[in-house]
Design brief:
single chain; about 140 residues; alpha+beta; three-stranded antiparallel β-sheet; 3 helices; about 25% helix
Length: about 140
């Protein structure tokens, strides 16, 4: 509750919560500030994990995903289950979230993973989409 000061004006007291997680990000941000907090930084970290082909990080051979290897495979139940299994592995490596639901769709020349995630410290549920396209595959 706000209390009047010496001049009789009511001052608002702002309660600012310290963010749970703080990180640095320049992707999609041409100008400062380059910091992300809470859910935004967790999503960015997951996107970085999904954007990295497995085995390409020095000293972290299990970091990344094998989904890029499956882009040219026929999209049958075996491939779909392998993609879901790998995506679940990536999400489970992130202790700040819990996977609620996951599905994979194929469109034109891309695969889209749709996930519903529970962000643990704040108990907020949000969806996340990760798209892998054949055009991206050409750069690896």
């Amino acid at each position: 509750m706000a209390a009047p000061n010496q001049r009789g004006f009511v001052q608002q007291q702002r309660i600012t919560r310290k963010p749970y997680f703080v990180g640095f990000n320049t992707v999609g941000q041409p100008f400062p500030p380059y910091s992300l907090t809470n859910i935004d930084i967790v999503k960015r970290d997951l996107n970085n994990h999904f954007a990295t082909p497995m085995g390409s990080r020095v000293m972290l051979p299990n970091f990344g995903t094998r989904i890029y290897e499956m882009l040219f495979d026929p999209f049958d139940e075996y491939t779909k289950n392998a993609i879901i299994e790998d995506a679940v592995r990536v999400v489970q490596s992130e202790p700040r979230v819990a996977l609620q639901n996951i599905d994979v769709f194929q469109e034109d020349q891309a695969l889209t993973i749709v996930m519903v995630l529970l962000f643990k410290p704040e108990s907020i549920t949000d969806s996340m989409f990760v798209t892998f396209s054949l055009k991206d595959k050409e750069s690896f």
